[in-house]
Amino acid sequence: MMKRALKYLAGLLFLYSCAYSQSDYDESFAHLPAPRKGEQVATFAGGCFWSMAEGMLELKGVHKVVSGYSGGTTKRPTYEEVGSGSTGHAESVQVYYDPAVIDYATLAEAFFYAHDPTTLNRQGPDIGTDYRSVAFYRTPEEQKILTQVIAKVNASHHYHNPVVTEVVPFKVFYPAENYHQGYYRQHPESPYIQSVSMPKVRKLEKAMGDKIKPAFQVKG
What we know:
Elements: H1 2-8, E1 40-46, H2 49-57, E2 62-70, H3 79-83, E3 90-97, H4 104-113, E4 122-123, E5 126-127, E6 133-137, H5 140-156, E7 166-169, E8 173-175, H6 183-186, H7 191-208
Parallel strand pairs: 6-7
Antiparallel strand pairs: 1-3, 1-6, 2-3, 2-8, 4-5
């Protein structure tokens, strides 16, 4: 993730990343839980999964978010393999939510606010196909909702350019290494979290208003 970001921000920011001193982190793969009774699952990719996971977790009705990889061909890829661009995966999040509290359309709307869906294969300093914007649908109804939300976002002119997000059928999601799970909250002192991830999360909080859990709602 940050190997490319460091080149982009060289001389401006001194950024530590998940690539920094990785021997100190738990590189075993996280557990992928099965949905609980009444839960549904949604999968999105929108740049670095550190901020996307935090943003989606702050939504009312979201119980758990797992960071991982989707959209590629290699089975059980590692972070390094995904970052090389050779596996076809994008950094993704799997969202476990209660449809009685938050529906898929609201999740999709939050997704489009949680990153910039108009930049192809790039999110800010993070460049490559592994940072591309993808919405994975599981049913024809989800596909229809995504199409409608994209049309709504484009019509709103919230972004200067049109949405380039891929809308593709879900196939498989592989959980990322344990050190990526909850990284945003575990490393608030990280310059990358403060300068890149945090503004994205704050943007989502402001955009989604009362859809955000009370503890994270923007005051004033």
